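Observation: inputs received (chain + uridine-5'-diphosphate).
Thought: call the complex predictor directly.
Action: predict_structure
Action Input:
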Amino acid sequence: MERTFVMIKPDGVKRQLIGPIITRFEQKGLLLTAIQLMTIEQSLAEQHYGELQSKPFFSELVHYLTSGPVCAMVWEGQHAVANARALIGKTNPVEAAPGTIRGDYALDIAGNIVHGSDSTENAQREINLFFHADRVDPMLFHMTGYEDSGN
Ligand code: UDP
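Observation:
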């Protein structure tokens, strides 16, 4: 079973889109195994987007990510990385298809509402950055136990 890291960025939280976004992932069939509302520090934002350090928009991106609370989540299920990316839509909301989160809720690439890991390796790296293992596993254990109990 695969896991991915999804983060509702500050504009998504400000616009009170946590509920509708979570609903889309749940309706798809993915399982929420960790969630945390948090305001992140510059160093965490820089580490998270480390691969983009040389890009001209990097400092604007870090500033944006630290401008208010984010909602960090771990979602689990078959092809969780690719399925989450499909729900989220293309990076530039102009190109994101209607029906995707960015296609429906965002106008501008600099404020595109939500992040989803682009590979299983990055998903694990990002989950480790944002969650201690004990924040993910108890919930997972709980959900697995729930399923096993036949409910
Ligand atoms: N971004 C931006 N300007 C650009 C390209 C990207 O502000 O020209 C931001 C945007 O918020 C994007 C994030 O940088 O979500 C990470 O970019 P990436 O290429 O990894 O896209 P993603 O994986 O988020 O679709």
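Thought: report the result.
Final Answer: Residues 74 and 84 are 11 Å apart (CA to CA). The beta strands are 2-8, 31-38, 70-77, 114-116.
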